[in-house]
Write a structure and sequence with these properties.
alpha/beta; Aspartate Aminotransferase, domain 2; Aspartate Aminotransferase, domain 1; seven-stranded mixed sheet; four-stranded antiparallel sheet; 12 helices; about 35% helix; about 15% strand
């Protein structure tokens, strides 16, 4: 079963930075088209998607016979592998990449050869190294430009050269995020290069993920074979109408590209300003981020941000990555600022706790404090000493009644075996940080934490 990162449907009132769709949401013309076709939902859709393919062909600069429409890009990937792969055929995939390539290839007997992309090179694919790995057994090379989740594009001339030099190998090029990149599509090259197949999506830039619209562009003979093999009525009435409406909305397309260009650069600059993050450049509408220096794993960071009603993509299930990586998409200025602020706050809290734990003396180090070596005044929170117990009065810890500088008899934590033990203090501080985000911290709560950690 494929595990994707877009689980926004599980949560209420969150800002979704996990799914990489247009922050402008759906085109008004798409919504209008859906409303105008509600009376057709009792009818079977046009199985050939005639009007939709005409609109898509005009959009990418080909003929309708060069286009096949699908119930999302995932259906096109599945259909391509089902039709062209036989058991033992070899498939070449640079990783990290969209998991559907590998899973569908393996489903139909494909054997996978992976090319691991290098983080030191911003995960860029050196396509010149691929020909040496291609032999007569390799049936398909899956490429994605811009790549998901790295955001890196592949120069079009490199892809075409690969297609020319390997005429017996299908070059499957996924351009799902190309509208965000400013890069030229290779869809118009499919008749010149018979082994080139270009995958496109309406779920990202046009934000139609809920209606499931994807399409493939290839030479007319290849498209006819796939069209004859696809399921009947695979694209529903409302999805076809919404896609056509979106393609006709030139103002929406223009404004979306302008918004993305502006907000992407701004978010990139803001993220670069957080020294604990390694943010990789991207040609897509998202950024891959290495968070190892924050001290959090990607599942931990996801959970911390969820507490602030922000959902990100945990990239630990991408082959070629690990628990050091997350991915965030570009949203509106206000939403992007909330993400940056949340990251800064989470990282700052962890850094503060770590610094406290690493101190030689965790408590009682301010010898000029009026209440040194400790106090029993409940209204005073000795934050400098970072004593998470307040005065417990439990002699088993090593604490005792002492005389403070002001002559008062107070409970002293100076010789406490627990507060001066970094491991125990670390556990307590972690518990405090969790509670401080959701409720009030008081003496009773801190004593409760102490008992929990001492167990």
């Amino acid at each position: 079963m494929t595990i994707h990162g877009d689980d926004a449907h599980k949560y209420k009132n969150i800002i979704d930075f996990a799914s990489n769709s247009n922050p402008k949401r759906v085109s008004e013309k798409a919504l209008e088209a859906v409303k105008n076709n509600l009376d057709k939902i009792s009818n079977y859709p046009d199985s050939g998607c005639t009007k939709l393919r005409e609109a898509l062909a005009g959009y990418v600069g080909v003929k309708p016979e060069n286009v096949i429409a699908g119930n999302g890009s995932a259906e096109i990937i599945l259909l391509f592998c089902e039709f062209f792969l036989n058991k033992g055929d070899v498939v070449l995939i640079p990783i990290p990449a969209f998991s559907e390539y590998e899973e569908n290839a393996m489903l139909f007997g494909g054997e996978i050869i992976s090319i691991k992309l290098n983080s030191g090179n911003n995960f860029k694919l050196n396509i010149a190294k691929i020909p040496g790995k291609i032999n007569n057994k390799i049936k398909i090379v899956f490429l994605c430009s811009p790549n998901n989740p790295t955001g890196q594009s592949i120069p079009g001339e490199d892809v075409l050269k690969l297609a020319v030099e390997n005429p017996k190998t299908f070059i499957f090029l996924d351009e799902a995020f190309i509208e965000f990149s400013g890069q030229e599509s290779l869809a118009s090259e499919v008749e010149k290069h018979k082994n080139l197949f270009v995958l496109r999506s309406m779920t990202k830039f046009f934000a139609l993920a809920g209606l499931r619209i994807g399409y493939g562009v290839g030479n007319k003979n290849l498209i006819k074979k796939l069209s004859d093999a696809k399921l009947e009525w695979n694209v529903n009435v409302l999805a076809q109408a919404a896609a056509i409406g979106s393609l006709r909305d030139k103002e929406y397309i223009k404004n979306s590209k302008t918004l993305m260009e502006k907000e992407k650069q701004n978010l990139f600059n803001e993220l670069l300003g957080i020294p604990e993050l390694i943010v990789y450049p991207s040609d897509a509408n998202f950024f891959l981020i290495n968070i190892k220096r924050t001290g959090f794993s990607s599942p931990e960071m996801k959970n911390e941000l969820l507490k602030k009603s922000i959902l990100i993509r945990d990239c630990s299930n991408f082959r070629g990555l690990n628990k050091n990586y997350i991915r965030v998409c570009v949203r509106t200025r206000e939403e992007n600022e909330k993400l940056v602020s949340a990251l800064e706050e989470i990282i700052l809290i962890r850094k503060s706790i770590k610094n406290t734990i690493n101190r030689t003396e965790l408590a009682g180090s301010d010898r000029n404090c009026k209440y040194y070596p400790c106090h029993d005044l409940n209204e005073i929170d000795c934050t400098f000493c970072f004593c998470p117990f307040y005065s417990c009065g439990d002699a088993r810890t090593g604490g005792e009644i002492v005389t403070a500088k002001n002559g008062e008899k107070v409970w002293g934590c100076k010789n406490c075996a627990w507060i001066h033990n970094p491991k125990v203090a670390g556990k307590i501080l972690d518990e405090i940080s969790k509670i401080s985000k959701t409720g009030e911290i008081n003496r009773e709560k801190l004593l409760e934490i102490r008992l929990k950690c001492l167990k």
